[in-house]
């Protein structure tokens, strides 16, 4: 199991407000998810299916690279883990799977995602596998976002703060 650390290249000076598939590279606003990260997301979704448990990891940024950290398997994913990155890195995103349910943010997922640049969720709802990255819109007020997540719920409020990018 162990933490994987693989690079994702980030494209500088480019702002693309939508996703783009280019040799399996998906661009989330300014961040590029390389194929190895997407492959890991898919692999963990397969494990989710096999074991009916949640899987996930954090995504840290160091300079222009994104690094996968704190991969969790099974029940420990459901527990609030101390998460984080190395001192010279910043926590920018995460990925987790939903063994049951869709790839949409739950209210508690949204509460966490408000502090990140993006949060990706994989699901196998009704046997249809998909992965959606919820990318925070520009200029979001983090405390408003967190308050709305708890008080009004993600069903109603997620679209105001996040844009959905289909990865799979
Ligand atoms: Zn979730």
Blueprint (SSEs and pairs):
Blueprint (H helix, E strand, L loop, with lengths): L20 E2 L2 E4 L2 E3 L1 H17 L3 E8 L2 E9 L16 E9 L8 H7 L4 E6 L6 E7 L5 H10 L2 H8 E5 L2
Parallel strand pairs: 6-7
Antiparallel strand pairs: 1-2, 2-3, 4-5, 4-6, 7-8, 8-9
State the gist of this model.
The protein has 168 residues and is an alpha+beta fold. The protein has helices spanning 35-51, 107-113, 142-151, 154-161; strands at 21-22, 25-28, 31-33, 55-62, 65-73, 90-98, 118-123, 130-136, 162-166. The strands form two sheets. A six-stranded mixed β-sheet has the order 5-4-6-7-8-9.
Number of helices: 4
What is the CATH third-level topology name?
Cytidine Deaminase, domain 2
Basic shape = globular
What ligands are attached or bound here? zinc ion
Integer average pLDDT: 81
Order of helices and strands: EEEHEEEHEEHHE
Structural class: alpha+beta
CATH architecture: 3-Layer(aba) Sandwich
Arrangement of strands in the largest sheet: 5-4-6-7-8-9
- Main beta sheet: 6 strands, mixed
Overview of this structure, please?
The protein is α+β, with helices and mostly antiparallel strands and 168 residues long. It has one domain (21-166): 3-Layer(aba) Sandwich (Cytidine Deaminase, domain 2), CATH 3.40.140. Helices cover 25% and strands 32% of the residues. It contains four helices and nine strands; from the N terminus they run βββαβββαββααβ. The chain has helices at 35-51, 107-113, 142-151, 154-161, and strands at 21-22, 25-28, 31-33, 55-62, 65-73, 90-98, 118-123, 130-136, 162-166. Strands 5-4-6-7-8-9 form a six-stranded mixed beta sheet. A hairpin with a 2-residue loop joins strand 2 and strand 3 (31-33). Helix 2 (107-113) packs antiparallel against helix 3 and helix 3 runs antiparallel to helix 4 (154-161). The longest helix has 17 residues, at 35-51. It is globular, with a radius of gyration of 15 Å. Mean pLDDT is 81; it is low at 1-24. Bound molecules: zinc ion (ZN). The site of zinc ion (ZN) has 5 residues, from strand 6. Zinc ion is lined by residues 96, 98, 106, 109, 121.
């Amino acid at each position: 199991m162990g933490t994987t650390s693989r690079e994702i290249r980030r494209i500088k000076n480019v702002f693309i407000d939508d996703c783009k598939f280019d040799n399996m590279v998906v661009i989330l606003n300014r961040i590029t998810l390389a194929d190895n990260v997407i492959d890991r997301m898919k692999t963990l979704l397969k494990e989710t299916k096999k074991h009916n448990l949640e899987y996930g990891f954090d995504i840290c940024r160091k300079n222009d690279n994104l690094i996968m950290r704190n991969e969790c398997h099974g029940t420990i994913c459901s527990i609030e883990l101390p998460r984080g990155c190395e001192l010279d890195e910043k926590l920018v995103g995460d990925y987790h799977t939903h063994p049951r349910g869709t790839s949409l943010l739950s209210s508690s997922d949204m509460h966490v995602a408000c502090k990140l640049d993006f949060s990706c969720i994989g699901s196998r709802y009704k046997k249809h596998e998909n992965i959606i990255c919820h990318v925070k819109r520009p200029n979001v007020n983090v405390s408003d976002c967190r308050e709305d997540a708890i008080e009004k719920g993600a069903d109603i409020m997620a679209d105001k703060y996040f844009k959905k990018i289909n990865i799979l």
